Amino acid sequence: MNVVLGVTGGIAAYKAPLVLRLLTEAGHRVRVVPTTTALAMVGAPTFEALSGQPVRAEVLDGATAVDHVDLGRHADLVLVVPTTANTMARAAAGLADDLLTATLLTATCPVLLAPAMHTEMWQHPATCANVATLRSRGVAVLDPDSGRLTGADTGPGRLPEPERIVAAALALVGLSPDGREIARADLTSAGTDAVATPSGTSGAGATIHGLPDVDAGGGPGPMASGACPPRRQDLAGRRVVVSAGGTHEPLDPVRFIGNRSTGRQGIAIARAAADRGARVTLLAANVEAALLPDELAIDVVPVGSALELADAVTAAAAEADVVVMAAAVADFRPAEAGTSKAKKDGSGRRTIELVENPDILAGLAADRPRADQLVVGFAAETGDESGSVLEHGRAKAIRKRADLLAVNAVGVGVGFGDVDTELTILDAAGEVVATSAGSKDQMADALLDVVVDRLAAPTIGQ
Ligand code: CTP
Q: Atom 29 in ligand 1: which residue has the minimum CA distance?
């Protein structure tokens, strides 16, 4: 397939060679068309070496080949990674003042833009209008991720990861990343308008958010995070408590029993809630400092063990409208934690007696400080011979009686860290309320959509 890879913009242009590599490794012939600014960030030799094709930026470069017409005419797919606010404005206005915009004007194939910019620029009414114009013309414009941006700022505007951009672009022409034919995706309505509000009913009313389900070979659904125009402040005035990370249960002053949770999902929920106007308390159980949010609307309370987390939840939940237990809490702790480092005794064995920790989620759901408080849990499941991920999730929902339980599959390399995930959101009776697939940011928004729905309903806590 002939692909034109436009590259514009600042620092995020460093991800363009990664996108290029994914495309060429999948067997596609790629012509890179950078803007002059992008060329200042990533030089032509890099693009030429990786694509094996000449790289030109201006209309008159290589004029004998009439590139500005030919590239667009012969392309099967055009993607622009990253796309700046400026390039989107030029494309929306129909300008053709460099080779990339000329190519966009002549292309008749599917076009995908992957914007990256500071949040203010993404959410500016001018950019929103340009995005709407381009989408109305059939151009697929991805909503950016939410997260750390080029400076010290965080928020919507971050370029999605190259794998996800390539998957979305290929889905536009009906291909999976591994070259299988799949149903062509329609991404032209991505954005807040396209993200339906979960029905709040069970089963058939479930809503699907997120990026392509690559493994299942399905097409992409709408993207929920970083939407333009800025999302409504539907959690304004609400207090939300989120626990994140994994507890450490001390064996002695230097050793502990822990788990693989990084805290990313809980942090994504805290950020999304703050973005939607909530005042957030993040109870961070052993979360790496670099991952912790620095938004003013998020108070971070570090905790270590399950007992410390239980105390922190009790303190924070008193005032909360919503409590989301995303932390992986150790079920057991050593019955005794030594005050000095335990030594080997020469027997070649060591037995550790464990005692059960309190179930914080179930305890809170049964005894809420406020009757109208919404209690949300997570169920990280692996599935086993006694039941599937969903069956275990259902049993847990019924057992814990949280208002909502977000169930996802975990295992070594699955569900932990900076990876996409799938969530099924159950109610206290174990009925499916919504399903969602994509990045942790998208999961966070999908869950909060259901939370907002429930806060509006009169049955909380009953
Ligand atoms: N949880 C909790 N307190 C515990 C254990 C878990 O509050 N002692 C919460 C987690 O924060 C999560 C939910 O319960 O929201 C489910 O956690 P999970 O570890 O999946 O469930 P467990 O109760 O540990 O069940 P099991 O080990 O039997 O799967």
A: 381
